[in-house]
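name: query_chain
kind: protein
chains: 1
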Amino acid sequence: MRPLLLALPFALLPLAIAQAADPVEEHASLGTHEHGVGRLNAALDGNTLELELENPSMNLVGFEHAAKSAVDQATVAGAKTDLENPLSLFAVPAAAKCSVAKVELHSPLFGDKADADEDHDHDHDDHGKDNGEEHEHEHHHSEIHASYQLTCAEPAALTSLDLTPLFKRFPSLHQVQAQLIGPNGQQGGELTAKSPRLNF
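structure:
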């Protein structure tokens, strides 16, 4: 199943090339780090649904620096707990009888805090001395990547994926650029709180 999900960016390459004609548009729509905007890749193959959600940390926890204070650590822990439960963030038809088979979360914010702080402080100082404020700002960018594998006993009933719970839980997330490979081929779209549904 993994090769199918990894093939998704290549399947939609013509769309990326078309948008690359205007460099400003490319940065706005395909930029790897845009606050308020996340990315979702979804692939349905047989009874397996794979989802990959990528977001700037700002969208999910409200900051991108290492969580040093108790308040920041609690915020990160709460977001991580919610991200570990994909069926509370992505609404699928109950008739599809989907269950969570696998969850993987990756972010500097979820790592060993002592090591992350030490590395962050060292790099921060180097960037500040050598490259000025612009590069120092770039160093603060961090992302949260979540990968899910769901097993659906009745995949024919899996007609849609609704991101309403995701937008409600993370109100700083305003748009999700979604790409999907399913039984009806490939498609892409921009999902928002007002238009949160992706149809298979």
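note: The helical segments are 2-11, 13-19, 23-30, 57-61, 70-83, 113-130, 132-139, 164-169.
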